[in-house]
Amino acid sequence: MDFSSKLLENAVNEMSQLPGIGKRTALRLVLHLLKQPAQQTENLATAIQQMRELVNFCSNCHNISDTALCEICASQNRNAKIVCVVEDIRDVMAIEATSQYRGHYHVLGGKISPMDGIGPHDLTINSLIQKIEEGKIEELIFALSSTMEGDTTNFYIFKQIEGFNIITTTIARGISVGDELEYADEVTLGRSIVNRIPFENSLKNS
Amino acid sequence: MDFSSKLLENAVNEMSQLPGIGKRTALRLVLHLLKQPAQQTENLATAIQQMRELVNFCSNCHNISDTALCEICASQNRNAKIVCVVEDIRDVMAIEATSQYRGHYHVLGGKISPMDGIGPHDLTINSLIQKIEEGKIEELIFALSSTMEGDTTNFYIFKQIEGFNIITTTIARGISVGDELEYADEVTLGRSIVNRIPFENSLKNS
């Protein structure tokens, strides 16, 4: 693309570094900012700068938090002995939105992915193992996405903690509530039959 | 959404002000910035700030430009008597990419759209009329999108310059080169038959 302004070109190039945003979309966004009051651009720039510079991670669960210990880890009403292993803050938000979980989290910060150059030491696995070694955890719930990377990460952690006497579980995979069986994929439907649960249990949440 | 960090929430809120970017996409973008080196966020923030603060508009055609007069208006090789009326810089870039046009542009900065509160005085129509009054223009090419707003804007300008002795044209609407007739919409196909051109003319660009 041939821009008539270096400033514009620079802004478009930086904006198009974001994932899923190509040059055309970036240009649309930048031209939108130009049409809006200058204050909006100022606010956006300041917000992302401050976020990047001042952001904090909870010293216990590694979730994003403005305080040294996040609200969940600091809460007296949550069971610290149950820990749910998730990839990032979006998964914490999703599980929190269900109001069904009263334990702690452990945010890995990603999944083991050799293709992207992410190994176990780029994640917060060591600090999880340490918590387990200190006997702080009774149950570990794996809640990573069921991709190859997610499964690899689950298995890596599982192998590391084999010697310890803790319960390891994984969230149930199955047909979504409200979905028609005929449209479900075979793997999911297959798993939901193999891992069927006593009918009484299904009445608990309904 | 329930964020555990005010800084994060603020960044997501500002990011989601951009058109076509919802809260979820904004969160994805912001988390991406967090995973990248801090320099990337700094570069993005600086680029959009500088662009918004220092951006200049060509005093003649109102296109975005780093100099007082944009490259096109300053060029000796372009015909200043032919002026193509477009909405914004993206249209200039699209027409320039064809290498088929050697005249000047006039960037309106939008289209007349009462629904969005945009009237003739929010656009650069007055400066266009002034150029016409000064006898600087021989041909005016309307190249706005063929929406209701585009047609309204064309017609408004057309009415304003009725008294002047200039040629007004509009870019040809028709079936795209390479398209099958059977899949073309009726309006376009209809127009392309009504506005048919001598066969010899069609050989010029092929």
Write the layout of secondary structure elements.
Two copies of one chain form a homodimer.
Chain A lengths: L5 H10 L7 H13 L2 H17 L1 E2 L6 E2 L5 H4 L4 E8 L2 H10 L4 E5 L17 H9 L5 E4 L5 H13 L6 E4 L15 H9 L4 H4 L4
Parallel strand pairs in A: 3-4, 3-5, 5-6
Antiparallel strand pairs in A: 1-2
Helix pairs in contact in A: 1-2
Write a brief caption for the model:
Chain A is of the alpha/beta class.
Structure description:
The structure is a homodimer of 206-residue chains. With 206 residues, chain A is an alpha/beta fold. Chain A has two domains: 6-54, Helicase, Ruva Protein, domain 3; 64-171, Dna Topoisomerase Vi A Subunit, Chain: A, domain 2, CATH 3.40.1360. Chain A is 43% helix and 12% strand. The first copy, chain A, contains nine helices and six strands. A four-stranded parallel sheet of chain A has the order 4-3-5-6. Chain A has a two-stranded antiparallel sheet with strand order 1-2. In chain A, a hairpin with a 6-residue loop joins strand 1 and strand 2 (64-65). In chain A, helix 1 (6-15) packs across helix 2. The mean pLDDT of chain A is 91. At the A-B interface, helix 1, helix 2, helix 3, strand 2 and helix 5 of A face helix 1, helix 2, helix 3, strand 2 and helix 5 of B.
CATH class of the largest domain in chain A: Alpha Beta
* CATH fold-level assignment of the largest domain in chain A: Dna Topoisomerase Vi A Subunit, Chain: A, domain 2
Number of helices of chain A: 9
User: How much of the sequence of chain A is in beta strands?
Assistant: 5-15%
What number is the mean pLDDT of chain A?
Answer: 91
How many β-strand runs of chain A?
Answer: 6
